[in-house]
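Continuing the batch. This is chain 6 of the set; chains 1 through 5 are on the previous pages. Same settings as before, nothing changed between runs. Recording input and output for traceability.
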Amino acid sequence: MKLLDGKTLGSTIEEQIKQEIRELNQNFIYPTLAVILVGNDAPSASYVKMKSKACERVGINSLIFGMPENTSEEFLLQKIEELNKDLKVHGILVQLPLPQHINTQKILETIDPQKDVDGFHPLNMGKLMVGLDGFIPATPLGVMQLLEAYHLSVRGKNCVVIGASNIVGKPLASLLLNAGATVSVCHILTKDVSLFTKEADFVFVAVGKIGLLTAEMIKEGAVIVDIGINRTNEGAIVGDVEFDFVAPKCSFITPVPGGVGPMTIATLLQNTLKSARNFAKDMK
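Output for chain 6:
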C-alpha cells in the first residue's frame, strides 16, 4: 500500500504557481481572487481562511467580503455584478453553503463564467461534460492531478464514484469518463453500493459519512480516493473510509487529512492563475 500524498504535491504546485505569478507581475498583472462569505458557519469561515492563506503564499491578492446571515439575495447579487465588472478581479468564489433564504443556483449563475474559478456555473459544467476547455471544480480537478502524478491511469478501468453532488461527484464522474474510464455513480438511492465497489479498480468516496467504505467492500489492490472530511467526537479529522482496515488491502490510498484537501486548494489557485492569464490575453 502506498499513500497518495496530496500535501507534498500541493506544495510543489504552489511553488510553480508562485513563479508564474512573478512573471505575470512583471507585466503588471496581479491575479486577484474575490471570496464572498455569507453568515457565521464555522467550517465555511475556516475554509475561507485557508484559501486566503494559500493565496498569500503564492502571491495572489485575496479580497474577502464577509456578510451577515440576514444578507438579502438582492444585495448579494449586486455585489457579484460589481465584481463581474471589476477588471482587477480575476476570480469570484461564493463560499457554500449559503443561508436558506438565498437561491444558491441563482447566485452561481450570476457569476461571470470567465471568473468562475469554482467551476460551478452551468456553462463551465457543460464544457466539462463535453470535454471543452473551461473552469473545472477544484476538488475533482485535484483528484485527477493526484492520480496523474502517481501515474495511475483510469483508462479502461472500472471506477466507482460514491456521492453525486454537483460540487464533487458529478464533475468527477465526467472527468473520469473523459479520461476513458467505465464509471458507476452510487448515491443515497443506490440499494447496495458494495455490488459496484467490489468490482472497482478505483473507488472515489465523497459523501461525508465516517466509516462508509469498509475493507469488505473493495477488492484486493484497488485504488481508494477518500474525499470525505469529517470530525469525530474527539475532534480528529477523518474521511469516509475505514482507513486502518482498508489501507492494507488496497494498492494506493489517500490519507485524511493530507490527501485530496491540499489538492483542492492548489487547483483553486491554478484556476485563478488561469483566469488572470486569460484576462492578459484578452487585453493584448
